[in-house]
């Protein structure tokens, strides 16, 4: 599938260059915004 940073496999060990991990992290960063809480009026009307 080739998803993820490049790596080197030596026997059973898999090694990732730190620069590749940093680049992959930056590329796959998901920014979440805080959830919006409902006021009492909105909560009552919602259900």
Q: If you had to describe this structure to a student in words, what would you say it looks like?
A:
It is rod-shaped and about 60 Å long. It has one domain (8-46). The protein has helices spanning 18-27, 40-46; strands at 8-10, 13-15. A hairpin with a 2-residue loop joins strand 1 and strand 2 (13-15). The longest helix has 10 residues, at 18-27. Strands 1-2 form a two-stranded antiparallel ribbon. It starts with 7 loop residues before the first strand and ends with a helix. It has 47 residues and is α+β, with helices and mostly antiparallel strands.
Which labels suit this protein?
47 residues, alpha+beta, 36% helix, 13% strand
List the helices and strands and how they pair.
Elements: E1 8-10, E2 13-15, H1 18-27, H2 40-46
Antiparallel strand pairs: 1-2
Total DSSP helices: 2
Q: Tell me the overall shape.
A: rod-shaped
Separation, N- and C-terminal Cα atoms: 45 Å
Strand order of the largest sheet: 1-2
The largest sheet is: 2 strands, antiparallel
- Given as residue ranges, the uncertain stretches (5+ residues, pLDDT < 50) are none
Give the rounded overall mean pLDDT: 85
Radius of gyration: 21 Å
Helix content: 25-40%
Structural class: alpha+beta
Report the order of strands and helices.
Answer: EEHH
* Extended strand count: 2
Beta-strand share of residues: 5-15%
Tally of discrete structural domains: 1
């Amino acid at each position: 599938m080739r998803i993820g940073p490049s790596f080197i496999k030596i026997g059973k060990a898999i090694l990732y260059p730190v620069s590749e991990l940093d680049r992959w992290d930056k590329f796959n960063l998901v920014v979440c915004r805080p959830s919006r809480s409902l006021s009492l009026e909105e909560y009552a009307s919602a259900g």
